[in-house]
Amino acid sequence: MIGFLARRALWFVVTLLAVVTVSFFLMRSVRGGPFDADRNLHPVIEKNLKARYHLDWPLWKQYLQYIGPLNLDEKGLVDGDGSKPWAGILTGDFGPSFKYRDFTVNDIIGQSLPISMALGSVAMFWALLLGLTTGVLSALLRGGKLDVSMRLAATAGIALPNFVIAGFLVIGFVFWLELLPVAGWGSLRHLILPGFALGAPFAAYISRLTRTGMLEVLSQEYIRTAHAKGLRPRTVLLRHAIKGGILPVVSYLGPATAGILTGSLVIEKIFAIPGTGTHFVNSALNRDYTLAMGVTILYTVLVYSLNTIVDLAYTFLDPRIELEEA
Amino acid sequence: MGERVSRHDERWDLGGKDLEALLREAEAVRGESLWNDAWRRLKRNRASYWSLWFLVAVVVTSLAAPLLPLPSPIALHLQEEPEAPVPPWRAAFDDGWDHRIVAGFTLVLEGGEWTDAARAAFEAPLREVVERAADREVHVRWSAEGSEAKLELALPHAAALLELPLADHIADLLTGSVAPDGRLASADGRTAEVEFAGVSARSGYWDLGPLDRGALWLRYQVFGFWQTGPWLGTDSKGRDLMSRIVWGSRTSIGVALMATLCSLVIGVTYGALSGLLGGRVDNAMMRFVDILYSIPFIFVVIFLITIINEYRTELADLGIEYITVFYVVVGAIYWLTMARVVRGQVLSLKNTEFIEAARVVGASTRRILFVHLVPNVLSVVIVYLTLTVPAVMLFEAFLSFLGLGVEPPKVSWGLLAVDSTEAINPMKTYWWLVAGPAAAMGATLLALNILGDGLRDALDPKLRGSE
Fold this sequence. Notes:
The structure holds two protein chains of two kinds. Chain A is about 70% helix and about 0% strand. By secondary structure, chain A is mostly helical. Chain A folds into two domains: about 1-105, no CATH class; about 115-315, MetI-like fold (Orthogonal Bundle), CATH 1.10.3720. Chain B is elongated and about 115 Å long.
């Protein structure tokens, strides 16, 4: 267990270093900088701006400054407000945003991450609620009409892009039934539709996983034993079958989380939700180096640690699995 | 391995038969091939079987797009007022005017309104010039209001894309020769102010390859300028939705196939190498895949694509199209799972009994590789491919949605889906803009998924029903 976590941590460092390095050099090597889109700046102003953000340094020096708690700037503190542009990501400081001049990346992420997290949680809630119930029902009513239609719905959910699902939802629930607000942010009601659209493909996949998992478990001998010793069907289902049946779902939760985080880029854009995804897309397009890097690093950390947690949870649910690999 | 021993020298216990007889017997009871068996199973699975045919139809339609008498997918009908999207069956297009060469004039009749006689009188001289230049009879369209009229002379059999030089030629001729003083007198003594509005050659298509131009030419030979109406409605720029869906399928299916091919080549090579080499090399190679797996790829892709966008002109100078790079980038992401799947299969096959049996019977390495290993790996690969294609199509839509994918004027299903989400507004819902592309995309992806499941069941009965 400790060994497993240690190995995971080691690979985590390697992965993170790879992500940071690759995206840093990819971004900086492209021509065009964060200040291009502005009106033609006076050369002196532009020079000062670049100096402010260390963009006039050679790349390797910028890289070192970005990574570590080093002070390569001989002038020390650069700005009037007494803050250094950045102390390096190792200190948890992602630096100032190039586009939102008065904000640091940490500020922006601090504001937008809770929003994206809320959206992601609602999506995950929908995915699990719908996926597990339909999956279990499907397995219990195998071959029936309900089973067939739910399986078809699941396949459709996997097949359709989430923004198309979002389109139908908006037409139906907002314009036709006039039940929910169309877009924006503020109350829980604003979260229902985007969360559902984001979670739908995962609900579909979870439903399929649950169905197959349940079918396999229901044909096991210990289930027959449980029935034979006179347990009520509900007890058999809830006590004995479900735990084994949803095992495949647990291992899918890691990829699902990653998928929900990624998918929220689009959903946030459709529903005008000021989350991290929106900021990322804008920052990549605007060359807001620090913000784009910050979000990328954040998501790598999130996905990696969630995957690790899922792997751990798996061993608790199924003691036969050992933490061998990776 | 020692020296190869000839089969006849070995003394095996053959149960009283000689080896020749045994071989003959083996020859007689040929087992059914993997593929025949799989095909039979697939046919029994009705949903998968029909999905297969549906997909074939989709691919054929998309390939045949230039041959079909569809309106232009990109002709903007902005010469009229900017219009609201038209629902299905509502309005009709006029017969292919949007993609032929049209010489336009504005005429103002002095003292009076346009009558049929007046039209005929003024039309004749203008028409004569154009007909002489183009060496064929032209089609005429009048729209008159009071004393002002618009006259359009269109060349038949001259789809603009195919005969652009002709358009220039006619424009040159008309600029010099028609009514230099801006006035035209008819034979019956009336005069009108004439203004030559130019020759429009809206091609109605983006730059097509020679093959597509040929197909387009063939289309005009067969159908003339007859074209289908807006059966699925039009979008907010007056473009025909059905045509856009069909032409869009070309891009989407193209991206999906090319990217999948990329992922196939990289993934199979990587996975097979890893599996065959085994040991420490295998370990290292798979660790590398693990690292790549834990990178949130969408971010790196967005970086990559903004970079490619930046160097678009340079790429164009090198003769590389943006879309090609796009294929490669997408393909380069989707090889990871393929590599894992192939490696796993190769590893497990390497030590199976039937491979050992083949080796014992004395099959050559090449025979083992191509007759026994490849088909078995192939089945897994094919199954995985049918699942990669929809994933890539979704990814294309995803990137197009973020404005990083296929770019106008080209169409793709992703772009159509983007248009459809933009068409959703509280004032008026243009449902057909959402329904059309969603149905096309959904049906295709659904069919691919069903076919993928069916193929998995058919090719690998052991896996039946599992995920």
